[in-house]
Design goal:
single chain, 426 residues, mainly alpha, 69% helix, 1% strand
Length: 426
């Protein structure tokens, strides 16, 4: 007969050895703040070394906010849809419907009526996507592409019908009212003094911040406010938990009494409404154009890329929208010379990344980072400025590069894009 003796934890110096404490994850808001500080530091250093002040000017920051807004709305729309398990490639078409609705509503009823009309038209596109994918089980990509084509055709038809008699141009609306803008006067003046002082780091941060508090529209405030609202609803409410469970495991959600169809429909209505708001921001913001045919110019796809870059999280997609909006604003404000200087900033960032990977002994990743830094530095060294033909596509190039880098750490919802039928097993 044998006896099993249980031994306790190893003893050193007469005291039991304690298990190592697990590291608590860094809060998301703190991680975002650190990334913002790092971005300002890189831009400040680049501006100092290259002598391109427009990298951190308030004008560039203000333009970037206006251009980031439609991307932010589209990214939020993609977040709501894909957290429910539905891929929404149709964001571009819903934005196009929103641009027409915004111009039509604003012309007859003012800016707030235009915003409401844009939400309704975008939501109708989301409803159509829900009927196709949720009710009839159509492939999500096929349905999204169809909505993009349908949105373009419907907007063109309605513009011919309504705007051509008013403006004489079937591709353009008559002038429509725009949102007023507001400034934090005291703060803006104080930041303007700091920006003019030309202090390394301080003036750069002041310039970037001043652009965010000067001539800001209510639509921009609403867009930024919708980021924490989306987080709260999706992650801190019962409705949001059920909606996200539909994107992770709809069969298990159904077994717990969740109305999967209802939550998917609700998510796509919100998604389409947000995409419509993105279209409205192209028409109703001060400094923007009136309705023009196909004026979204692929921003729905870029919004989808910003959402993927943000790993299907509200804070992450805000950073992605800011990145793409900044690159677009920079090429509009300062041209090819400033965009080329941004390549130098990317070199600095890749050098830091290479050092970090070497410290972690990730030799392959360090080699790739060093190779990318060398290639970008050659582009910067060999050119005085980028060709004019390439400059308008700066945000598209940034989209490709960022997605290639971020693709290694993505965690999409598990049931995204999968066909679901009530009562079926996995």
């Amino acid at each position: 007969m044998s006896t099993t003796v249980e031994t306790g934890p190893p003893i050193e110096g007469g005291a039991p050895k304690q298990a190592p404490r697990e590291r608590r994850p860094m809060p998301g808001w703190l991680r975002g703040a650190l990334w913002a500080v790092a971005a300002i530091a890189v831009l400040s250093t680049t501006s100092y070394l290259t002598g391109i002040d427009t990298l951190t000017s308030s004008n560039t920051s203000q333009t970037a906010l206006r251009l980031a807004l439609p991307i932010l709305f589209a990214a939020l729309g993609g977040l709501w849809a894909e957290r429910s398990g539905v891929i929404n490639i149709g964001l571009e078409g819903m934005m196009i419907l929103g641009t027409w609705g915004a111009a039509w509503g604003a012309y007859y009823g003012g800016v707030w009526a235009g915003l409401l009309a844009a939400i309704v038209f975008g939501a109708l596109g989301g409803l159509l996507h829900a009927v196709a994918t949720v009710t009839f089980g159509v492939n999500h990509i096929v349905s999204g592409v169809a909505i993009n084509l349908l949105g373009l055709g419907v907007a063109k038809y309605l513009a011919d019908l309504v705007f051509e008699p008013l403006s004489g141009n079937p591709r353009q609306s008559p002038p429509v009212p725009k949102f007023d803008t507001y400034s934090a006067t005291f703060l803006s003046e104080w930041l303007a003094d700091l920006e003019a002082a030309q202090r390394v780091g301080v003036s750069d941060a002041a310039g970037l911040l001043r652009g965010l508090v000067t001539h800001v529209s209510p639509l921009a405030m609403l867009g930024l406010l919708l980021v924490p609202i989306s987080y709260f609803v999706l992650w801190r409410t019962r409705f949001g938990l059920r909606l996200r469970s539909c994107g992770e495991n709809p069969v298990a959600a159904e077994s717990l009494g969740v109305n999967v169809y209802g939550h998917k429909y609700a998510a796509l209505l919100v998604s389409g409404g947000l995409a419509g708001m993105g279209g409205a921001s192209l028409v109703l913001l001060s400094g923007g154009a009136d309705y023009l045919e196909n004026q979204t110019n692929g921003r729905g796809y870029i919004g989808l890329a910003a959402m993927i870059f943000g790993n299907w999280r509200p804070g992450g997609l805000l950073g992605g929208a800011a990145l793409f909006g900044y690159s677009d604003g920079l090429q509009l404000s300062a041209g090819g010379e400033a965009v080329l200087a941004l390549c130098y900033g990317a070199v600095l960032l890749l050098v830091v990344l290479t050092v970090v990977q070497i410290v972690r002994r990730r030799w392959f990743a360090a080699g790739l980072s060093a190779l990318g830094a060398a290639a970008l530095y050659y582009v910067y060294w060999a050119n005085d400025e980028l060709p004019r033909e390439l400059i308008p596509y700066t945000p598209h190039f940034v989209t490709i590069i960022v997605l290639a880098v971020a693709a290694q750490k993505l965690r999409p919802p598990k049931a995204i894009g999968k066909r679901y039928r009530r009562g079926e097993d996995d």
